[in-house]
Inverse folding.
């Protein structure tokens, strides 16, 4: 069989939650051990050649077909075309197990695969253990990867199998389980999941780094607002925040009491102005809806500029103690109004307010 099989040792396999390989390294810049026609060999790929492989893939704009045992490779050779052209002979591309995207990450050429539903079931059962990319243009360019075969009969010994490695999940810190750092970042960033494996796309890593920087900046601003030192611990930040919350609660309680006192004083002053208006004949019962819509200051201003509507009532003066202050008819009407308004000690309250005028 005239095909090239590359060792999968250190291929940095990335798997999904079912353990199915979805991304791994095909080639690297530099030496790539191979076995061709049963003989060991090596392909040395320069940075320029690797870039040419990627550029060809991007220019052609077609995904790399994944097949079984190089079936497409042999068919393409027979028809003297590339595998993607041979695949078009099959309705719906049924000869392919899946299709892959190539990308260069550092010095590694990676393939990201999307399997067909049937092939995915096979891979879950680990019926394929190895991979073998097909290279064309080794002698006469352009140099390109035209397909990748899944196989169980590799032409190279001591392979670290794709499927076999899936059976050996490390108890901790492995790719099947998030590290403590990943778990901490997941919680910090509010993500459902997070991965920091070596093969994680650099763009994604940069995005994670930006999010962490944003959280760190927020914490620094909180420290500044609380008047804490930059080196303040998380416990100190929490304690300072709690103190601010308690302080706010105390301030709210004080304000509530002040509001109650202000409301009580306003009620008393409003009643006094109503009593004054009745005593001066400037307020009658029909005016009360309007009068009650005014606060005490507005009512005072209204009474100061309102003409008398009814004559002053003649109220006989009650017998008083010798030490009592003489009250006029207006005073008595005002006191009665205060008493009707529910003001305790209406007379003394009225006289107190009167002396203050």
């Amino acid at each position: 069989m005239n095909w090239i099989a590359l060792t999968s040792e250190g291929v940095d396999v990335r798997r999904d939650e079912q353990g199915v390989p979805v991304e791994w390294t095909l080639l690297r810049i530099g030496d790539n051990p191979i076995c061709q026609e049963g003989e060991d060999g090596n392909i040395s790929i320069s940075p320029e050649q690797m870039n040419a492989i990627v550029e060809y893939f991007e220019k052609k704009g077609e995904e790399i077909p994944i097949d079984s045992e190089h079936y497409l490779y042999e068919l393409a050779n027979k028809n003297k075309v590339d595998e993607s052209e041979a695949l078009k002979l099959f309705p719906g591309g049924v000869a392919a197990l899946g299709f892959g995207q190539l990308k260069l990450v550092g010095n590694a050429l990676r393939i990201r695969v999307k399997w067909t539903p049937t092939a995915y079931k096979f891979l879950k059962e680990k019926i394929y253990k190895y991979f073998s990319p097909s290279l064309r243009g080794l002698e006469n360019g352009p140099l390109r990867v035209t397909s990748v075969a899944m196989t169980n009969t590799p032409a190279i010994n001591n392979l670290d199998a794709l499927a076999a490695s899936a059976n050996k999940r490390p108890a901790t810190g492995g790719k099947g389980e998030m590290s403590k750092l990943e778990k901490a970042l997941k919680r910090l960033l509010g993500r459902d999941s997070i991965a920091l494996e070596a093969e994680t796309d650099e763009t994604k890593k940069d995005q994670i780094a930006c999010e962490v920087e944003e959280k760190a900046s927020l914490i620094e601003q909180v420290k500044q607002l609380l008047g804490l030192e930059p080196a303040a611990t998380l416990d100190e930040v929490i304690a300072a925040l709690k103190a601010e919350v308690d302080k706010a609660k105390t301030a709210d309680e004080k304000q509530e009491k002040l509001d109650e006192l202000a409301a009580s004083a306003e009620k008393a002053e409003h009643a006094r102005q109503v009593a004054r208006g009745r005593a001066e004949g400037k307020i009658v019962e029909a005016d009360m809806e309007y009068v009650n819509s005014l606060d005490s200051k507005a009512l005072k201003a209204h009474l100061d500029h309102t003409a008398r509507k009814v004559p002053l009532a003649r109220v006989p003066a009650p017998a008083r103690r010798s030490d009592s202050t003489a009250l006029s008819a207006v005073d008595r009407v005002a006191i009665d109004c205060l008493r009707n308004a529910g003001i305790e000690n209406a007379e003394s309250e009225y006289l107190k307010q009167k002396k203050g005028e």
